[in-house]
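Colleagues,

For the teaching module next term, I've prepared a clean inverse folding example: a structure given as C-alpha cells, and then the sequence designed for it. I'd like students to try predicting residues themselves before seeing the answer, so please don't circulate the second half yet.
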C-alpha cells in the first residue's frame, strides 16, 4: 500500500506484514550493469560506460553521480570458473572492480554489478 509522497519526494510503502513502512527511494538499485570481459556494458542502468584497465581490472562510470562514496557496490563474475570479484575503489562518478581466477591470478571475465546508495 502506498502511504504518500513527502515534500522531499520520498515514497513510503507499507511492508508485507503491514506493520512497518519502508522508504522506496532508499530501497531502489541506483545503478547496475552486465558487461563483457572487456568492460563493455551489454545491458545497464545509470552506467555511461566501462573502461578496461588491464587484466581483470575494470572501471564503470555512472550516468548520474552518486551523492558521495558511501554506497554499497556488489557484483558477480558471470562465468562458471570459480572467479572472485571485489571493489577496488569508489568515487561519486565511478567505481572500480577486480577479478581473480581460481589460480589466484587476475582474470578477464564477463561481470555484473549493482549499486545501492544515494544519488547526488
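(Answer key — instructors only)
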Amino acid at each position: 500500500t502506498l502511504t504518500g509522497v513527502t515534500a522531499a519526494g520520498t515514497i513510503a510503502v507499507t511492508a508485507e506484514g503491514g506493520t512497518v513502512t519502508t522508504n522506496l527511494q532508499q530501497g531502489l538499485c541506483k545503478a547496475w550493469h552486465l558487461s563483457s570481459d572487456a568492460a563493455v556494458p551489454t545491458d545497464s542502468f545509470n552506467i555511461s560506460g566501462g573502461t578496461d584497465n588491464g587484466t581483470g581490472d575494470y572501471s564503470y562510470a555512472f550516468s548520474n553521480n552518486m551523492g558521495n562514496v558511501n554506497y554499497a557496490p556488489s557484483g558477480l563474475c558471470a562465468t562458471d570458473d570459480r572467479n572472485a570479484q571485489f571493489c577496488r575503489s569508489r568515487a561519486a562518478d565511478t567505481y572500480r572492480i577486480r577479478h581473480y581466477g581460481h589460480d589466484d591470478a587476475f582474470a578477464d571475465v564477463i561481470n555484473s554489478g549493482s549499486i545501492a546508495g544515494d544519488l547526488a
